[in-house]
Design a protein that fits this description.
The protein is α+β, with helices and mostly antiparallel strands. The chain has a single domain, classed as Aminopeptidase, CATH 3.40.630.30. 29% of the residues lie in helices and 37% in strands. It has four helices and seven strands. A seven-stranded mixed β-sheet has the order 1-2-3-4-5-7-6. The protein is globular.
């Protein structure tokens, strides 16, 4: 597996991952009716941001997007999001994408990285982020409607560099 920059020819595979994750309504606060065109505009970052894929040969196993969390006085903090294909989960794809995003943020002079909305019931992601040095700095109770669990919290997670 190799992490590399997103290329337009990756879109069909990236969209398949995004569509699966968003339609499940378990881990991302995106509208489940999101279209491919809307997703492209949301997921594919323009410079200075970056979108990447984790690829094994010609297969995209996962994808990430990263950039500045907020403009102006908040522009010294980065953010990132990650999605992994269902059949590639548990194989280190998310960890590799997260580490790559952290390296990118450090290389670009950010003071830290913040995740604004980590669904608290997404235990795999929360544990991965904690292993990589993030802490939960706050939780908005009941801010996410999970299709099975009902209302669960959204964590704000942060790592200072």
């Amino acid at each position: 597996m190799r992490i590399r920059g997103f290329a337009p020819e990756d879109w069909a595979q990236v969209w398949a991952i995004i569509e699966d994750v968003v339609r499940a309504q378990e881990t991302f606060p995106y509208d489940p009716a999101l279209t491919a065109d809307e997703a492209y505009g949301t997921w594919v970052e323009m410079p200075p941001g970056r979108t990447t894929v984790a690829a094994d040969g010609g297969r995209v196993l996962g994808t990430a997007k990263m950039g500045t969390n907020r403009p102006g006085p908040g522009s010294h903090v980065a953010t990132a999001s990650f999605m992994v294909a269902a059949d590639a989960r548990g194989r280190g794809v998310g960890t590799a994408l997260c580490r790559d995003a952290l390296d990118w943020a450090r290389q670009h002079g950010y003071a830290g990285m913040q995740f604004n909305a980590v669904v608290e019931s997404n235990r795999a992601a929360v544990e991965l982020y904690r292993r990589e040095g993030f802490a939960v700095v706050g939780t908005v109770p009941g801010a996410f409607r999970h299709p099975v669990l009902g209302r669960v919290g959204l964590h704000v997670m942060y790592q200072e560099f």
